[in-house]
Design a protein that fits this description.
about 25% strand, Aldehyde Oxidoreductase, domain 4, single chain, 3 domains, seven-stranded mixed beta sheet, 32 strands, Aldehyde Oxidoreductase, domain 3, alpha+beta, 18 helices, about 775 residues
Length: about 775
Amino acid sequence: MTALPLTPDIAEAFEEPEYRVEGPLKVTGRARYSADVKVPGVLQAKFLMSPHPHARIVSIDTTAAKAVPGVHTILTGRDIGLRRFGRFLYDWPVLAVDQVLFAGERVAAVAAETRDAAEEAVNLIEVEYEELPGVFDPEAALRDGVPILHPDPSGYYYLGGARPPVPHLNLQGYQLVQKGNDDIERAFAQADRVFEDVYVGPRQHQGYIEPHACVVWIDDDGTLRVFSTNKAPFSLRHQLSVVTGVPANQIVVDSMFIGGDFGGKGHSIDEFACYYLAKASGRPIRSVMTYADELFATNPRHPARIYVKSGVMNDGRIVAFQSRAYFDGGAYGAAKPMPGLMVPTGTNMMQAYDVPNTRMEVFVTYTTTVPSGHMRAPGATITALAGEEHVDNISRELGIDPIEIRLKNAIRPGGTGPRGEHYRQPQVVAVLDAIKRESNWGKPLPPNHGRGIAVRHRDVGQGKTEMVLNLREDGKIEAVYGTPDQGSGSATVIRRIASAILSVAPEQIMIRYGSTGESLPDPGSGASRVTHIVGRATIMASTEMKKRLEELAAEVMGWPAGDVLLEENRFRVRDGSESAGFEEVTQRIAAGAPVSTRGEYDSIGGHEEDPEDASFYAYMIEVEADPETGQITPVDVMMAVDVGTIINPIAHQGQLEGSFVYGFGNAVMEDLVVEDGKITTLSLGEYKMPTEMDIPPLRTVLVPTEIGPGPFGAKAAGEITNSGVAPAIANAVRDALGVRVKELPITAERLFAALAEQSSKRAGS
């Protein structure tokens, strides 16, 4: 389906400010979240978690726990059998049976009348463990003599059929990408200079407000009902069916409102055990994690270590690039929704550049640590650091302006990215030119101030979805869709698009999110795809609805068939002789047979060689760095962003600014500290995230793009600007103080240590 043209009347409609569809419910406290669901007779669930990263379970004694007043059911892995769950690879046990592979793994589940009773029972369960050697480093996991954590994965269910082979049993996934000369060393031999760097990224939590929660019960007719914080309810329905054996058509998942996501709400953990508790007890089960649970044992960002090497000519042209990226996937690969269990940005270090010869390897390994999952633009922050700080290092060593070296190597129309990928409209040069033109680049700075540059892009997400428009009895149009709104404003986008296509007031469009029992299949929120795919489905359903309403209006009003138009909230005869208001006509239509239209859109039907769509952007960040303490203070931030048609300007700008704030936290403060395989950062007082007081002045320059895959040429906005913050800050620090920090987050302590090391080297020389 080709994109509809952006007509002047639609463009004008999109420029109008609009309140959020769900806003009144949220600000008045009437929005219903999973933890708010009230079901008669509900029991509270709590889980006993392993204190050890790797151990054999010798025995479990639940005698004392069962005696706690109010306790109804206690289950262990041996009670339910070895049942595994996941998003693509089902390798994570619902409850551990013979061994545990990370500190925090669920060993037993308790259902009681109150949370206090459940917690007391959990504390009385006695488990005898035999501790085993831990595997805590993603590179070490591939060395000889290291324990194999999944010695026989052949029986694991894999969503795609046959799981791609991996060269080592301690690998969840492996990828090799090459471009140009297959013998990369020959390409390096042609270069004037060779540069090598190593970059390290931390484990980080997604930082949503609402913790994971679910309410699960089994109806008298055998229907399994699940209220969940999961943002991909149709995926969760499939997982539950595979794990429990309940047919998918007997499972209804309702995700309602979701209190933030940032990648972390696509994976469910406790819903599976709660099913078995509900089955055993005959009662509904509620599970609500504490934030300590969240930080200790959910699905955080993958820690990573990335080795990069570039062959460069003296004029700054990069002629060869090689990388090895090791991502710590944790004990299980279950939280990954990608085929091959890859971190999708593992080869994106040099994504903005046309490098003729590349060889890039990605290793996603098993370790005895908390399973890693997706976090906003998965893997992109550390790959951005590894690419953009590396390029900046090259520019400094060669004495070339950091923007000029990027322009020299930028992807241009007809060029290709490091994987050989083509782009319909690469905007690297445009966003860098905007930075040069609009910022203070090149002007002198005060002492201890520095400016840093980074240029990146984010692909526009893909997927397949369906939605329905219904004419209600009151004459309004109801849009029923299955994409949970995790805070991004998808309901508002749907209403604006439907309103524009139908040419009716937004108030005539009623938006209703439907459970898996009410709506059509949908892949869920995520991957910066919602405006793209749901918006296109909305266009299809709305276009057909408008045609049907115009035909039916002629019938009910006695007007000439084929001569009725719906425009500006009115039906009128083409020659202007007669007209009537929208609701007056639609209420007459609604008195007859039901009127419903369906929109289905699948963006994945193209060919691999088709050009890709991406949103390009660049940062200029100025920092003040204190050489006495290592404290970093950003004082000026400018982003230049390649955008398509903007459906909702307020929400669009909010996404761009919110992504900066998110990236700033990733860059300078957020870190789940691990000691002996256990996460020790167990409160938001220890795991620090940015607040309003931390955020510097921010300027945005929008670089218009003629082409976008979304409705009317829209592009993505949700994740695009967060990953470039870290390298821009790192490069600004280098500009200010002459030292580089190559490990995230760039804390005052790390910068102080780098300054001390620099001072020591100077003293030694």
